[in-house]
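// run 5 | inverse folding | seed 20
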């Protein structure tokens, strides 16, 4: 294992520029969460980076340092959105909602940033609405193009927004699902949003909600690909500083608890601010998300979860029981590396994505198989790493009960499910 020597101490907030001094959660050293390995890489040196989140004492943005470029993380990406049925259904429901709410039709323009394999924009294509995907990962963009989704390869920001404007492209709807947290230069990105948005247009963004991360102990959603972690209070400040006004917000169940925000140009008076914006602001203030006191006690909860998982796995091994994992999500790699879990405690993992099968998890080097491997090996326990999809996984893998197998969910607290 090799590691850089610097940490975020001495750095400044990526939004407001204030010095970063207050620790939020220190998860030790970890490799990039999506840096899956092939067999001939297992004996090569592997780079581990500090996985230490800090909270800005001025704007309360929770954030990691940028130890490696976004290009090195996202230009060739292992995550394809189309392999989760519940996520596809979420995308379809969203598309129907915004098409109806904002009257989108064949004369409208929709642009999605970080459009992945076209799983979401396909719904707009099917509705006859012109759309463009912007996707930094070339290997993923190829899949979208094969589906008939017009896709531009690149990292979005002020520069690319200027290129689109020069091509006469402005969007009536700008979509960004689970991309805002992945942006190292936050101000450049939101400036680009403002430039891309048509005068009467709407932006919707989805991202994990910091309040849920804290209250439900979702520390494994912290990984290097996620540079920032947002409350509504902070994201409103970020958007307002670039001439964008949040007029609505929804609390979603996706990814363990997310926000979907709706924004427009500040001078656009056509969208009244919904009462639920003010209601959620009050909820966050009650949780002290506008005070450092709301952040200081988090690390101890994380340590308790680590001890519980390691104790369970050790006891299972000592009693001659076998444990396998389901899923190869980024959050799972954070969890396993932080807890120091290797093949002495966990045999393997399985994943539905063929792009991950045959690879190995970063850091832990656990092999990734197709889900049928569970049926062949009949483990006593199946540890669900994408706990946000627990119901979907339990339904798909319910056959493990035929041999007395049980499910284990590590977050927010360790639970064994018959």
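// decoded
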């Amino acid at each position: 294992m090799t590691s850089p020597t610097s940490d975020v101490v001495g750095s400044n907030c990526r939004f407001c520029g204030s010095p970063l001094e207050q620790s939020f959660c220190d998860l030790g050293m970890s490799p990039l969460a999506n840096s899956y390995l092939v067999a001939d890489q297992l004996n090569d040196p592997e780079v581990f980076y500090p996985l230490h989140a800090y909270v800005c004492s001025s704007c309360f943005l929770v954030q990691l340092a940028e130890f490696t470029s976004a290009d090195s993380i996202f230009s060739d990406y292992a995550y394809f959105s189309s392999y989760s049925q519940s996520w596809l259904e979420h995308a379809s429901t969203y598309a129907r909602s915004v098409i109806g709410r904002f009257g989108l039709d064949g004369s409208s323009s929709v642009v999605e940033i970080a459009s992945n394999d076209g799983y979401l924009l396909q719904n707009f294509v099917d509705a006859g609405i012109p759309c463009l995907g912007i996707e930094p990962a070339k290997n993923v963009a190829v899949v979208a193009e094969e589906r008939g989704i017009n896709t531009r390869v690149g990292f979005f920001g002020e520069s690319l927004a200027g290129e689109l404007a020069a091509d006469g492209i402005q969007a009536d709807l700008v979509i960004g699902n689970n991309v805002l947290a992945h942006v190292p230069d936050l101000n450049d990105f939101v400036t680009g949003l403002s430039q891309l948005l048509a005068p009467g247009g709407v932006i919707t963004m989805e991202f994990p909600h910091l309040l849920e991360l804290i209250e439900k102990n979702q520390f494994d959603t912290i990984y290097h690909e996620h540079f920032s972690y947002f409350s509504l209070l902070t994201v409103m400040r970020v958007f307002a500083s670039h001439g964008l006004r949040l007029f609505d917000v929804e609390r979603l169940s996706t990814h363990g608890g997310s926000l979907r925000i709706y924004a427009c140009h500040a001078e656009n008076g056509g969208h009244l601010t919904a009462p639920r914006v003010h209601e959620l602001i009050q909820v966050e203030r009650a949780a002290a998300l506008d005070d450092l006191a709301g952040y200081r006690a988090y690390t101890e909860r994380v340590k308790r979860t680590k001890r519980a998982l390691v104790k369970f796995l050790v006891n299972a091994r000592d009693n001659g029981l076998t444990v396998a994992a389901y899923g190869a999500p980024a959050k799972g790699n954070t969890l396993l590396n932080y807890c120091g879990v290797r093949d002495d405690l966990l045999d393997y993992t399985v994943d539905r994505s063929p792009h991950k099968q045959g690879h190995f998890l970063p850091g832990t080097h656990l092999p990734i198989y197709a889900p049928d491997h569970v049926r062949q090996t009949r483990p006593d326990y199946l540890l669900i790493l994408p706990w946000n999809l627990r119901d979907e996984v339990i339904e798909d893998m319910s056959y493990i009960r035929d041999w007395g197998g049980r499910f284990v969910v590590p977050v927010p607290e360790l639970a064994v499910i018959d």
